[in-house]
């Protein structure tokens, strides 16, 4: 339902300042297949951040991108994802990797649903969730790993217009201790949560969570064949 609705309303306002006619995107793999990401790198957030920066510079890319429905072994770096007997490893959003301070914009009209500083190692850090309505259908967009200053003076229910700048990529210290990036996620049912929603799930629950969190590229339109010049 939401997927078809979003396809009918494309295109949306860009979430980051990316020009598909000029800019290249670097597809980034954070599964076990990426053997360059050693435990030494993953255990040191500065080394991890340097790895991402060097990859972007090497390929002359402003942004790296990827991750939806990706099974990521990198989450073993944080106890935050070790839930019960089965750890959480399946990524539910798309990550856009870039420099701290990169502006983030609202893709369509909406309002502030909730916000929070999820300050645990490996968590979102500063987080904003917007609520949207299209053709009587309500859904949400989540923006994680933001600058803490972006949460100042926000109010639940505050109106947001398409194209409005709402945030920036946060630094390591305020984004959950990750290399600077934006986690962007679609959520249909917030399940009563405020300022937070799982961005990673247990693999055994993938059908439930992927159904509630459709492909964010339906809004981003950054990974479609026509706009994604692989490098």
Strand content: 25-35%
Based on DSSP secondary structure assignment, what is the total number of beta strands?
A: 12
- Mean of pLDDT: 89
Shape: globular
Largest sheet: 8 strands, mixed
Stretches with pLDDT under 50, minimum 5 residues: 225-231
User: Roughly how much helix do the residues carry, as a percent range?
Assistant: 10-25%
Gyration radius (Cα, Å) is 17 Å
Number of helices: 5
Structural class: alpha+beta
Q: SSE order, as H and E?
A: HEHHEEEEEEEEEEEHH
Strands in their spatial order, largest beta sheet = 1-2-4-11-8-7-6-9
The rounded distance between the terminal residues' Cα atoms is: 33 Å
Question: Characteristics of this structure?
Answer:
alpha+beta; 5 helices; disordered C terminus; 231 residues; two-stranded antiparallel sheet; eight-stranded mixed sheet
Question: What order do the helices and strands come in, and which of them pair?
Answer:
Elements: H1 2-9, E1 25-27, H2 39-42, H3 45-58, E2 63-66, E3 88-91, E4 94-97, E5 103-105, E6 110-118, E7 125-134, E8 137-146, E9 159-160, E10 165-168, E11 181-187, E12 200-202, H4 206-212, H5 217-220
Parallel strand pairs: 1-2
Antiparallel strand pairs: 2-4, 3-12, 4-11, 5-10, 6-7, 6-9, 7-8, 8-11
